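Weekly structure sync, notes
Attendees: PL (lead), two postdocs, one rotation student
Agenda item 3: pending single-chain targets
PL asked that the sequence for the first pending target be pasted directly into the notes so everyone works from the same version. It is reproduced below exactly as submitted, 340 residues in total.
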Amino acid sequence: MRICLVLEGSYPYVHGGVSTWMHAYIQAMPRQEFSLWVIGAKAEDRGKFVYELPPNVKEVEEVFLDDALRLHGEQQPVLFNEAERAALRELVRLGHPDWDVLFRLFQEKGVHPLSFLQSRDFMELFTDICLKEYPYVAYADAFHTMRSMLLAAQKMAASMTEEAKEKGEKTLADARQESERLLTDARNAADELNRDLARKTEAARQKLSAAETAMKDYIAKSLAMCLDQVDYLEKLPQSELPAAQAPAQEPADQEPAAEAAPAPEQPAEGEVPQETAPEEKPAREPALSQDTAQLIEKDILAAYDEEKPAQPLPADTDFRSEFKLDLDELKFGRNYEPDK
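Predicted structure, written out during the meeting:
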């Protein structure tokens, strides 16, 4: 927070009770910032401070009463309306003026302070105030005192207003410059996005055109191939192909044809033919398939295991060295003789 102090004829130009108390007051609040508006008698005292200002004093504005003697400005007659005359009367009598009216008068309308202090309206207002409120004060002393005070106050108000106006104009200029910069950046970004979008659109259009061309070429080639195939099929002779016959398969169990038997010998003349006994053909065992043999083998081994249950072997017996298989006990195969 910044605090404004208005001081007259005291701190920081001279030592005294008010100056000492004000210096201690500022030092007691180091976290607050202070702006000093000091009023002195003579301009030759400008900058001659008897106190070292604390670091939290950020601004010092000096106003001197004798500056009024060196003021020069327009002295054109000004006509005031009733609201302005009422505000000026309260200002001269150090009352409670309407500051909005005074600011419009001295800033918007551009009325110079000397134009008011040297006008007939000011003399009439001041004379009426002196007769009613200061009847025992010398008119000349009251006039010069009031005139010096009003010039200093108006100078302070004018400087504050000019400073605020300069800051406002600078703020507006900075805001305008910043807005133009932001607008330029936005336009550049939009232009870059538009260019990028145009490049992507052109690339997509070229891809689409290439795809359409390739599709048209593919369709044309496919159509030409189909027409060639149709033309080829139409040129084929109209003929019927014989149906393929599967080769006859001989049955697997069919025995080979028996060899032709030799013709019997004819008996000689005068001999009695002898009857010959028909040859006996040896009985042929039916051939076993591999699956049947494996099933028989499994049945035999199962029966063998049921007849001789397995005896537990001693712990120190080597199974591979003690176990022996007797092939004579097998009851199948070429060595099997059921009569024995």
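Discussion points:
- The CA atoms of residues 93 and 129 lie 7 Å apart.
- Residues 139-235 form the longest helix (97 residues).
Action: rotation student to compare against the earlier draft before next sync.
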